[in-house]
Amino acid sequence: MDRQPWRLDPRWHRWFDLLLVGGLLLPVPLLGVAVGPAEAGLSLLQIAPLALRRSRPVAVFTTVAAASVLQAVLIDQPVWGQVAFPVAVYSVARFSRAAPAAAALVVGFCGAVVASYDWLNEFDTTGWQALVSYVFFVAAIVATAWALGTLGRTRAAYVATLVERGEQIRREAEQQVELAAGEERARIAREMHDVVAHGLSVIVVQADGARYAAEHDPTIATRTLETISATGRESLTEMRRMLGLLRAGDTGTRPQPRLDDVAVLVAEAQTAGEQVEATLPEPAVAATVPAGVALTAYRVVQEALTNIRKHAGPGVRARIVVTVGRELEVLVEDDGRGAASDDDGRGLGLVGMRERVDVHDGSLTAGPRPGGGYRVSARLPL
């Protein structure tokens, strides 16, 4: 398991700064006794502001730099408080922006020149060689502090960018999962609607016919009840298959309906006593249609027949034409009163058909046809 690098939390950052200031202030009382109160006061003035170096780095550096200037005016020698200057430069470079950090670097280089001249002048050592050595030494300390601070700021920004990018990727992945789940729910809803609506419509038609036939010919009623039983079992099997897809470990390997299975829908409707004529492609031609397109065509025919049973009225004649060429064309029309029937607006059949056809970049038209009745026409690219 990957482990995150150890880091101080904000509370420990505060304690670290307080301990740093406390450690640097430890020699100050001894400095006041050994050297004088002026040196001790200046050291305190330079070190104490470091307690706020994270939250107010520019103000802290300004205070430390001002105290260093005051030291150069009052005392012509280094004091212990000078250690606060590189810490302040580091803090500006680490916790502020690039512009204040660059300004602190320039001030540090100027301070290196002034301090070196001031300190060497105290010892009557004004040769250029000694001055250049001191300037380079002090400037190197300032530059090192600035470089470390800049590196820390750059690294922190890089880590923050990585964290933000990781969060964005996580959010996008969650959105993709939600979209995929929504699409799968819609697909399952369409499948269940097609299977259940078609099966129940056949059962209702057969049951109505059996009720009237039982009064005159019990034999017809028996055959009708057998059809109802077979249709119910087939619909139940389809339902179990689709629900099985929702369970882990169930592959749901039953083949999906193909284009040649449209003949089964026609035979089923004719067995139920419906007047349906169909013009279908040869099995060899139907076998060349891709499985996804074939399933969509099958569902369009299935839903159209279901709507005819529900809305077209009694004694209706239906015609089904399926042709395979440069594209797959499906035509289902009837001469009933489906176009004039009331629509409660809650049906999912046409919506499901359009969604299926749109997936394959096809087109679907559905509406009343000239002379009465209803027509559903779909075109699916191959």
From TrEMBL:
One of its GO terms (cellular component) is membrane. Its main location: cytoplasm. It is an enzyme of class 2 (transferase). InterPro entries: DUF7134, HATPase_C_sf, HATPase_dom, His_kinase_dom, Sensor_HK_TwoCompSys, Sig_transdc_His_kin-like_C, Sig_transdc_His_kin_sub3_dim/P. One of its GO terms (molecular function) is 4 iron, 4 sulfur cluster binding. This is Oxygen sensor histidine kinase NreB. Its EC number is 2.7.13.3. The keyword Transmembrane does not apply. Member of the two-component regulatory system NreB/NreC involved in the control of dissimilatory nitrate/nitrite reduction in response to oxygen. NreB functions as a direct oxygen sensor histidine kinase which is autophosphorylated, in the absence of oxygen, probably at the conserved histidine residue, and transfers its phosphate group probably to a conserved aspartate residue of NreC. NreB/NreC activates the expression of the nitrate (narGHJI) and nitrite (nir) reductase operons, as well as the putative nitrate transporter gene narT. It comes from Nocardioides lianchengensis. PROSITE patterns: HIS_KIN. Its cofactor is [4Fe-4S] cluster. It is found in: Cytoplasm. Keywords: 4Fe-4S, ATP-binding, Cytoplasm, Iron, Iron-sulfur, Kinase, Metal-binding, Nucleotide-binding, Phosphoprotein, Transferase, Two-component regulatory system. PANTHER family: NITRATE/NITRITE SENSOR PROTEIN NARX-RELATED (PTHR24421), NITRATE_NITRITE SENSOR PROTEIN NARQ (PTHR24421:SF10). Transmembrane segments: none annotated. It catalyses: ATP + protein L-histidine = ADP + protein N-phospho-L-histidine. Signal peptide: none annotated.
